[in-house]
Amino acid sequence: MSRALEKARAEAARAAADVEKWVRAVTGAAGELAAAEATEVTDPSQLDSVGDAAVRARGKVGAAQRALDTAETRRSVARRAVLLAEAADEDDEAARVERDVRAHESKVQNLLDQLRDLDGVPYDAVTAESTYSDRRRFGGSGDGQVFQARRLDLLVASARQHRVRAAVLRSTAATGGVPTFNHEVDYTFPDWHAGTPLTGDDVPDSARDYAASLTPEPTAEDVATG
């Protein structure tokens, strides 16, 4: 986890605690207002004091609500910042794996060159794209023949998944929703086909949690009406 992500999560936690504090303040002020408005006077001389109490309580409710609105905005910004920091971490990890891909391909090519020099004929390298196509087409096997995952296959798949996860996080931060298909995110690769459902591992838990936090809780009326 990067330092940037740690800081973003800490800020989000502070923002969430601030929201809870102002929720309690609004609830308390609303209780004071309800009590003041329910107060029954027994003498006209009490009208000023009771009215002043109601005005003060109403002012407290308004001030607390405005503070709560501001706190909720800061919390929303902080939550999106966490998603974007996670996306940056996913991209960094993808870049690291992509360097491993290039290094592995270079080692394989060196071995192929040695075979050519030894045997006097060229040997073709298997590319990341062709092995990926085999796995997509046959799902790992076909006609009794098993297509074993090469180390290159695994590295390429890992890098691509990190890129997809980063794209999902950025999409969720921008839209508030979790994408369902690959064409809903800003990332493509060789042998990419629109309309492919994203897998569970493609969608980070934090994206799901953020989207769920934006969904209003059902009211009693919602439940009653179905």
In a few lines, what is going on in this structure?
This protein is mainly α. It has helices at 3-38, 47-119, 128-138, 151-175, 205-213, 220-225, and strands at residues 141-142, 145-146.
Question: Can you give keywords for this protein?
Answer:
226 residues, mainly alpha, two-stranded antiparallel ribbon, 71% helix
Topology (elements, then pairings):
Elements: H1 3-38, H2 47-119, H3 128-138, E1 141-142, E2 145-146, H4 151-175, H5 205-213, H6 220-225
Antiparallel strand pairs: 1-2
Helix pairs in contact: 1-2, 2-4, 4-5
What does this structure look like?
There is one protein chain. Strands 1-2 form a two-stranded antiparallel ribbon. The radius of gyration is 29 Å and the shape is rod-shaped. The protein has one domain. The chain contains 6 helices and 2 strands; from the N terminus they run H-H-H-E-E-H-H-H. With 226 residues, the chain is mostly helical.
Low-confidence segments, given as residue ranges, are: 138-144
Basic shape = rod-shaped
Compute the average pLDDT: 85
* Approximate strand percentage: under 5%
Kindly, what is the distance between the CA atoms of the first and last residues, rounded to a whole number of angstroms? 43 Å
Strand order of the largest sheet: 1-2
Number of domains: 1
Please give the share of residues in helix. Answer: over 70%
Main sheet overview: 2 strands, antiparallel
Number of H- or I-type helical stretches:
6
> Based on helices, strands and strand pairing, what is the structural class?
mainly alpha
